[in-house]
Specification:
Pathway: Amino-acid degradation; L-proline degradation into L-glutamate; L-glutamate from L-proline: step 2/2
Keywords: NAD, Oxidoreductase
CATH superfamily of one domain: Aldehyde Dehydrogenase, Chain A, domain 1
EC number: 1.2.1.88
Bound molecules: 1,4-dihydronicotinamide adenine dinucleotide
Protein name: L-glutamate gamma-semialdehyde dehydrogenase
Structural class: alpha/beta
CATH class of one domain: Alpha Beta
CATH topology of one domain: Aldehyde Dehydrogenase, Chain A, domain 1
Largest sheet: 8 strands, parallel, barrel
Strand content: 5-15%
Number of strands: 23
Number of helices: 37
Pfam families: Aldedh, Pro_dh, Pro_dh-DNA_bdg
Radius of gyration: 31 Å
Shape: globular
Length: 973
């Protein structure tokens, strides 16, 4: 058998493997004889028939009535997720009214045998009729709250562990074992982690007391989420996690061992798998736990690595002389895994992209588990009759394993099997209002029309069709190919992979910044050279220019380390931001290349009267001066330059004086890709040089990104010029707000607030500066924000564990400190933190301010201002948004669609982000740029960008001049 280290290496290999290759690897052990496959099939049909005879559970009835692919189903899910946690009646009513708008409820009344379904339908129908009346006068809110509470009750075993234990002992649970899950979503703060720790300990004690002497295998157990026990459970914080979390888990295990119950570590996102295995190995090695058979791990079959993790579990059990329980699940985060992989431009998905592949992986894993009975205690969790039947056949007469199902689901399938098979119920414990997000995830996972649970519960679908349901078997395109054929998405780095991190560390350690070599030449000469080079470059055509930009993108992607190094060392960016910076530059290059091919290759043929040909060509304007800031020293520099070059202009670029090396490296890259030096020149200097360039005769356009004050100065210089009027494309700053209402999920809002306000040390133009948070949830949101900000680690950005690097320079810090002094005089400090002894740092800081002191200018750093609002003060918020004059970004956190739409309509803001962070616009997907004091437009990275860098030439030809209108004369019927 392979060693632990070999198993870990194999897991990494599988993770990086192409999906098809991975499937091939799994298929081999799953080629069962025909007879066996027939037995599996027959058993599946029998299970479905038996389950139907038993009738659907309330959840299944709910899913049937409210299909999740219908507007009603989605609206109701939204209501279920939010209603119970909204503290104030006004927002609850707004949420209900919004839900009513979105569905057709009349058709549902009395359709179902389920009380919850009927109650929801009746309540919604009544309310629908009442729309336009004052909802507060109706008992409807109470009816819906009751309905949602019932829904929670169906999924939740009990609101406390004592209640859950009582219910587990009730007659309707007879025959089932239980594993109690103290539902914790991930902890964001040290306080949350501590409270989850305490509640797990209490649960262990209570479960142990309720079931003396049953042992971990047949007695009840507890399921633990590692991310609930540590506020920074992330691979980049591995050192901290191993030092702080392992002792906590060891303690919990010892407590479980003392009362003789099992403890299973739940599965989480793919990013955390490797770290979880580190933690489990460390826990198994802890003194006193050696030889303990109570520890379990959950393994997700949808991960390509699953089979490797099974082998690892067997190896770990052998190594530590114990038996490890393995709960095999299919996996609950599939859609978010796919999304994250696409966002991060990973070379492969961590999960299989088809259902069939996951099913195959599940059975391959099951087989491997059953083959190691001395090392692995197997538990198979599924609600799919085909999977259950296959396991049942594979296991044959053996009894040393169990099935598992979720509380509220699958009872009808399993109950008839209890005489032959053991089955454990995974039983969530906790307050209904906290569980509803969990419940919605479960419903979404099982309730999609194509899902087994949905089909099996639908009596209109024949059992044969349930088992053989046609599913979309096409694999998803790899993340970097999602925009093909137009362009490839930039390749990201997987910073959750320890090997990638150490490889990058080695590469970065070998690099040095070097001295800046100031390119020779007088600005006027450089501009003249660019003027001379213009005709040739413009004449080259869009396709040739696109080739060069794409070549530059490929070069950058092939060897990003020198640029990453500069982003970190010269601009102070942390790793994650440095990678994002390089990716954005690559995306700009490819996007504008694609735009050049779209717009600058073929002339656009225009309508014409007969005998005439009209066409429009997009051509360069001449020499563009591109002036960029330091905060995106590569992405904005390259973005401006690539747009100008793509459109056919020659360029003189002036980067910010703080980041000259990056600009020189980027220029050299474009030269290597074929752009002639006369077509793109870089000049180094500060404000004076910038002003000098802008005033040069012969300039045909300016692209500027920086402060509003500088943009004004540039406009003033241009206004004094004598020649042709020179267009100015200016992207400037903003005083960006986020509006959070009480329907928002505080944890999600807080995470986005922290990322938006303090990410990149607040040195992003899009960063959050002013938070409007509704009074009723303000305390809970702000506590979370403070707790999360307090977890951020300030320091050397070269260390991958650093969350916040230094500010760009002492002048930036001095400006922020001046702002802070002003805030201290009229505002109330909410939190700040310690800074490293050396370096120019500012800790994440927040002040609460009055309506009279809302900010009027941008504080370019990690300084957040907060204003509470009552629902009736929304007009004040909207007035501020309209009147402050800036219009760059706006965040909204609310579950009420109509509110989001109203705000979006009334605010004049360039980029609006709903229920997400408000930074990190993606080229081509979220064209970026503001209005008002925030810039002139066009947005960067959008379908209209190139047009503003270009000029248009229309040619009209009288085609009859040479011998008459042949087309007209030769016209046939
Ligand atoms: P800044 O305005 O001081 O400098 C920007 C660039 O303009 C630098 O290259 C600088 O040397 C040059 N410059 C300064 N005075 C000039 C003059 N009189 N004539 C010509 N060029 C001159 O801005 P900073 O501090 O470098 O960047 C931060 C600002 O940029 C913030 O206000 C931020 O919001 C804004 N920004 C806006 C973005 C957007 O897309 N809207 C993106 C990134 C930053």
């Amino acid at each position: 058998m392979a060693s632990l280290a070999e198993c870990r290496a194999h897991i990494r290999l599988l993770h990086r493997m192409d999906e098809a290759e991975c499937l091939e690897y799994l298929r081999r052990p799953c080629q069962w004889p025909r007879k066996m496959r027939q037995a599996m099939h027959g058993k599946a049909l029998a299970l479905i028939a038996a389950a139907r005879a038993h009738g659907p559970s309330e959840i299944e009835a709910f899913l049937l009535e409210y299909s999740l692919s219908s507007a009603d189903g989605q609206a109701l899910m939204g209501l279920a997720e939010a209603l119970l946690r909204i503290p104030d009646a006004a927002t609850k009513d707004a949420m209900i009214a919004d839900t009513l708008e979105r569905g057709q409820w009349d058709g549902h009344r009395g359709h179902s045998d389920s009380a919850v379904v009927n109650l929801s339908s009746i309540a919604l129908t009544l309310a629908r009729r009442g729309v336009g009346l004052d909802l507060a006068q109706w008992p409807i809110r109470q009816a819906l709250e009751f309905g949602m509470g019932r829904l929670g009750g169906i999924f939740v075993m009990g609101e406390t562990i004592a209640a859950a234990l009582r219910r587990a002992a009730a007659a309707d649970q007879a025959g089932f074992r239980h594993s109690f899950d103290m539902l914790g979503e991930e902890a964001r703060t040290a306080g949350q982690a501590e409270s989850y720790r305490a509640s797990y300990h209490a649960a262990i004690a209570a479960i142990g007391a309720a079931s003396p002497g049953q042992g971990p295998l047949s007695g009840p157990g507890v399921s633990v989420k590692l991310s609930a026990l540590h506020p920074r459970y992330h691979p980049l914080q591995k050192q901290r996690v191993m030092a702080e979390l392992v002792p906590v888990v060891v303690d919990l295990c010892r407590a479980a061992q003392a009362v003789d119950i099992g403890l299973t570590i739940d599965a989480e996102e793919a990013d955390r798998l490797d770290l979880s295995l580190d933690v489990v190995e460390a826990v198994l090695a802890a003194p006193g736990l050696a030889g303990w058979n109570g520890l379990g791990v959950a393994v997700q079959a949808y991960q390509k690595r699953a089979i490797g993790v099974i082998d690892w579990a067997a190896a770990a059990a052998r190594h530590f002389h114990c038996r490890l329980s393995v709960r095999l699940v299919k996996g609950a985060y599939w859609d978010s895994e796919i999304k994250r992989a696409q966002e991060r431009g990973l070379p492969h998905y961590p999960v299989f992209t088809t259902k069939a592949a996951t099913d195959l992986s599940y059975l391959a894993c099951a087989q491997a588990m059953l083959a190691a009975p001395n090392l692995i205690q197997s538990a198979f969790a599924s609600h799919n009759a085909a999977t259950i039947a296959a396991i049942d056949v594979l296991a044959g007469e053996r009894q040393d394993w169990e099935f598992q199902r979720l509380h509220g689901m699958g009872e009808a399938v399993y109950r008839p099997m209890l005489d032959r098979r053991s089955c454990r119920v995974y039983a969530p414990v906790g307050r209904h209002c906290h569980l509803l997000p969990y419940l919605v995830r479960r419903l979404l996972e099982n309730g999609a029309n194509s899902s087994f649970v949905h089909l099996a519960a639908d009596p209109r679908v024949a059992p044969e069709d349930v088992v053989n349901a046609p599913v979309d078997e096409s694999r998803l395109a790899p993340p970097v190919m999602i925009f093909s054929p137009q362009r490839r998405l930039s390749l990201g780095r997987d910073l959750c992979d320890g090997e990638t991190i150490s490889h990058m560390q080695q590469r970065l350690a070998g690099l040095s910044c070097g001295d800046v070599e100031i390119p020779a030449g007088d600005p006027q000469d450089i501009v003249n050279q660019a003027i001379d080079a213009f005709a040739g470059w413009d004449g080259l055509g869009g396709a040739r220019r696109a080739d060069m930009l794409e070549c530059a993108a490929d070069l950058l992607e092939a060897e990003p380390e020198p640029f990453l190094h500069l982003a970190i060392v010269e601009a102070g960016k942390i790793w994650v931001d440095a990678i994002a910076e390089i990716r954005e530059a690559v995306d700009f290059l490819r996007y504008y290349a694609a735009e050049a091919r779209r717009l600058c290759v073929h002339a656009l043929v225009l309508p014409a009267v007969t005998g005439e040909a009209n066409q429009l060509e997009i051509r360069g304007r001449g020499v563009f001066v591109c002036i960029s800031p330091w905060n995106f020293p590569l992405a904005i520099f390259i973005g401006q330059v690539a747009a100008a070059l793509a459109a056919g202009n020659t360029v003189v670029a002036k980067p910010a004086p703080q980041t000259p090396r990056m600009a020189i490296a980027a220029t050299a890259l474009l030269h290597r890709a074929g752009v002639p030096p006369a077509v793109l020149a870089v000049v180094l200097g500060g404000a004076d040089l910038g002003a000098d360039l802008v005033g040069q005769p012969g300039i045909a356009g300016i692209a500027f990104t920086g402060s509003h004050a500088t943009a004004r100065r540039i406009a003033a210089i241009l206004a004094q010029g004598q020649g042709p009027l020179v267009p100015l494309i200016a992207e400037t700053g903003g005083v960006n707000a986020m509006i959070v209402d009480s329907s928002a999920l505080p944890e999600q809002a807080a995470a986005d607030i922290v990322a938006s306000a303090f990410g990149a040390a607040g040195q992003r133009c899009s960063a959050l500066r002013l938070l409007f948070v509704q009074e009723e949830i303000a305390d809970s949101v702000l506590d979370l924000v403070a707790g999360m900000a307090g977890q951020m680690r300030l320091g050397d950005p070269l260390d991958p564990a650093t969350d916040m690097g230094p500010l760009i320079d002492a002048a930036a810090l001095a400006r922020l400190q001046a702002d802070q002094r002003a805030l201290a005089s009229h505002g109330r400090m909410l939190f700040t933190g310690a800074v490293p002894e050396t370096g120019v740092f500012m800790a994440p800081t927040a002040y609460e301010v009055g309506w009279d002191h809302l900010p009027t200018h941008e504080s370019f750093g990690p300084l957040l201002q907060v204003r509470r609002w009552r629902r009736d003060q929304l007009p004040l918020v909207l007035t501020w948004l309209r009147q402050n004059g800036h219009g760059l970004t706006l965040g909204i956190h609310s579950r009420i669609d109509t509110l989001c739409q109203q705000i979006g309509k009334e605010a004049r803001i360039g980029n609006i982000y709903v229920n997400r962070g408000m930074t990190g616009a993606m080229v081509g997907c979220q064209p970026f740029g503001g209005m008002g004091l925030s810039g002139t437009g066009p947005k960067s990275g959008g379908p209209f960008t190139l047009l503003r860098y270009a000029t248009e030439i229309v040619t009209s030809i009288n085609v009859t001049a040479r011998g008459g209108n042949v087309d007209l004369l030769c016209r046939r019927k």
